[in-house]
Design a protein that fits this description.
The complex is a heterodimer of chains A (323) and B (95). Chain A is mainly α. Chain A has 14 helices and two strands. Chain B is an alpha+beta fold and 95 residues long. Chain B is elongated. Classes of the chains: A mainly alpha (323), B alpha+beta (95).
Chain lengths: 323, 95
Amino acid sequence: MYTQGLTASDPDHSEAAAHFQARIDADIRIEPNDVMPDAYRRTLIRQISQHAHSEIVGMLPEGNWITRAPSLRRKAALLAKVQDEGGHGLYLYAAAETLGISREEMVDQLLSGRAKYSSIFNYPTLTWADVGAIGWLVDGAAIMNQIPLCRCSYGPYARAMIRVCKEESFHQRQGYEIMTTLARGTDAQRAMAQDALDRWWWPCLMMFGPPDGDSQHSDTSMQWKIKRFSNDGLRQKFVDATVPQARYIGLTPPDPELRLDEATGHWRYGAIDWDELRRVIAGDGPCNRERLAARRQAHDAGAWVREAALAHAAKRRPLSQAA
Amino acid sequence: MVTPATPLWEVFIRSRNGLSHRHVGSLHAADAVMALQAARDVYTRRGEGLSVWVVPSTMITASDPADKAMLFEPTASKIYRHPTFYDVPDDVGHM
């Protein structure tokens, strides 16, 4: 895409592009005011803003359980975790804004349905065990994706991801603790934990995106060091890390073909239903409409607060300037 | 009516006494009081700081990356600004 846009007939551009690629290859971070190809800027705006939207929409499935957490300990942890997700969204929006898009534009893209967010948040949280599964599996998968982003070529994104990753590890551990507790509890509790794993396992594997052969943005992103590992590589890493964790607490991933490949040490998994991912991305997941409706409602209901705060600031400004 | 954009602020945090304030990120807020409150919520959830500064982003004047060569490269040739440029006899010991 990038090389097509900058053809050899345009010597200035191809020279600039080569210079930019040389900086990337030398591991020199790109900062907001540096010269960069338009396609690099567009790719980052799309990726960072969608990442931010995912954090914000991701508050909804878990927020659903805050008032019904089974103990004060669990409630305090869940509240802190959901607050973290809000903070992660803000770090990321701020990073995207350094590329020249406004917060208002990004929010509008989300609310109008033009921007995507991670398909995983379009699945419902039916039981308390789902809160454990999200922390353990969804945040676990997110960490796999996000750790390489700490070394992304764009400085503000990389710095935001360092903060996010530091906080994310608490999320995964609190989720696994919930699952461990349920798995060691009564038969009903164990069944609830297994049911949550059954429902979240495949959607979590889909979080890493389409198989390497079909991924539309991968090659250029790799070349620009926005992305450092392939979708399939990260997915395999996640499966290898997670299967032993599940077995340790006596739970079984819902994949009859799952087996350890002794030669390589990798867990081989069965075929993923990519039609399901396409359906959910296209808007037909179990909760797509509900999630967007919740965000729109929150945005509309908060409009008077934003207006009042700005009006208050405007009213006070002349006074403070006169003082 | 279209709501005007909420101003952008840069956030600086001093992690402990004896260190300088360091830029940690930015946020949107209608005024300084709310910017400070938001900075505390967004950037200090785990004991990251003892002091927070918020500065309107529009108040920052930055150097242009295009001027980098003119501004910063001349120092590379001025090696006599570094102590290792000067020869001191070994017998004198550490100086």
